[in-house]
Amino acid sequence: MGKPSRVLIVGGTGYMGKRMVMASLALGHPTFVLVRPDQVASNIHKAQLVISFKQAGAHLIQGSVDDHESIVNALKQVDVVVSTIAESHILEQLKLIKAIKEVGTIKRFLPSEFGMDVDRMHHVMEPGNLLFEQKRQVRRATEAARIPYTYVSANCFAGYFLAGLAQYGRFIPPTDKVFIYGEGTRIVIWVYEDDAATYALKTVDDPKTVNKTVYIRPPKNILSQREVVEIWEKLCGKVLHKMPISEEDWLAPMEDESTSVQRKVEMAIFYHIFYRGELANFELNQSNQLEAATLYPDVEYTSVERYLSRFA
Ligand SMILES: NC(=O)c1ccc[n+]([C@@H]2O[C@H](COP(=O)([O-])OP(=O)(O)OC[C@H]3O[C@@H](n4cnc5c(N)ncnc54)[C@H](OP(=O)(O)O)[C@@H]3O)[C@@H](O)[C@H]2O)c1
Asked: Which family would the database say this protein is a member of (predicted)?
């Protein structure tokens, strides 16, 4: 195997981006972080994060996808681009794609995805489909520009979904009562964000993953909400009061004008995951579908039990 590719992270100071930077460094890639100078100068968290990247060995490149010359300059220094641009700015990646095409030397592009496979989700309930549609636009633009890509479907991030036992808007586990979606038996796939970053970076120099979708399905983490609650009950030594929410009750606020669009988007996504079971209701049997834990059995992923034990 050759030398690890040079990797540029775009969106590096974000929730997922910072994990990509650290995973890239840990896997021995010369790692470059696109830094928007104005943002870093005016934000204490970003400023300190960027310095910590530098101290960990990353190279900082000043620039922005809004500034074509700067992004072209950054792309000329690397082989691989991993984008973790925010959901609110997914279409900014069209500028990145234009620059990648112009430079012509990028061997792999991972667009900002890391959730459900958007090409399987054309039917998402409105207004939840907006984000999926934008991610699909980025996929189609990548393919049209003939840029080698890998799409990473990382399912439910642990911090967002597992930590709160999938309670909407809650990020630590409850110890008294828990809402259960329907029967709570739909199968969900729970993935620790650091593991998602490691798997994503593992793909970038792997010829098997070029122009494929890689699904992260850690075998021990394919569990229903009820199974997750049981694991937590054992860890915390308490039996939680279960409060089932019917599909109708869950969806009722979608009809309410006072519910914000953001909330409706999130509720629609919860609906497809927890009531329809659409993360795990299909097999990976097409030639463009691969599974990360099978590809990279050397990665010691974090089990649901180990993740939740931090809260016990
Ligand atoms: N599967 C899941 O459960 C799950 C959960 C959360 C997110 N995700 C996915 O993960 C991906 C990354 O999400 P995230 O939560 O990490 O994002 P985030 O933290 O909200 O933002 C990521 C970065 O986007 C960049 N950005 C923001 N505004 C920008 C602008 N106007 N122009 C250019 N860059 C801008 C910033 O990077 P810099 O300031 O460093 O340039 C920011 O730190 C998304 O595709 C999201 O859908 C999945």
From this structure: Belongs to the NmrA-type oxidoreductase family. Isoflavone reductase subfamily.
Atom of ligand 1 nearest to the CA of 113: 45
Nearest to 192, CA basis, from 233, 155, 151: 155
Provide the number of structural domains found in the chain. Answer: 1
Q: Is 104 helix (H, G, I), strand (E, B) or coil?
A: coil
* Amino acid in position 176: D
Query: Which ligand 1 atom lies nearest to the CA of residue 36?
Result: 41
Maximal C-alpha separation, the chain: 58
Place of tokens 């101290």: 55
pLDDT tens, residue by residue, 224-262? 999 999 999 999 999 999 999 999 999 999 999 999 999
Residue 275, domain member (yes or no): no
Q: Residue 44 burial by CB count (10 A; 0-12/13-18/19+): exposed, middle or buried? A: exposed
Structural domain of residue 79, as residue ranges? Answer: 7-154+192-216+283-296
Ligand 1 site residues (CB inside 6 A) read: 11-17, 36, 39, 46, 65, 84-87, 89, 92, 112-115, 154, 156-157, 160
d(CA 170, CA 154): 20
**Is 199 domain-assigned?**
yes
| 248 in a structural domain | no
Q: Is 46 a catalytic residue?
A: no
Distance from the alpha carbon of residue 227 to the mean position of ligand 1, in angstroms = 30
Asked, for residue 167, whether it belongs to a domain, the answer is no
- Of 280, 245, 204, 289, the C-alpha closest to 27 is 204
User: In ligand 1, which atom is closest to the CA atom of 84?
Assistant: 12
Q: What pLDDT, in 10s, does the model give residues 48-98?
A: 999 999 999 999 999 999 999 999 999 999 999 999 999 999 999 999 999
